[in-house]
Here is the input.
Amino acid sequence: MSDEEKNPIIATRRASAALAADSLRTAERELAAFYTAVVQRYSLEEARRAAYDWIKQIETMSWSSDGAVPNWRNVSIAAANCLSSRVIASSQNS
Here is the structure.
């Protein structure tokens, strides 16, 4: 084992990078599932708006400093709330 592999700082950085990559993959899957559901239920255009809402929700999240993985389902729920408000408002204006 090299000195680099024994270094706890390097090991911690690698673990953090792996956790971040895993979290990003999970976020991508959650967004894809949300987008697909909106396309199937509403339309492609509404799905684009909903995906934008989903991404905006990430920007407003408070990120844990302890390295905990974010709960992406909460992001989807918040974006679905935006979607439902938009759909309801649209139906009332029609």
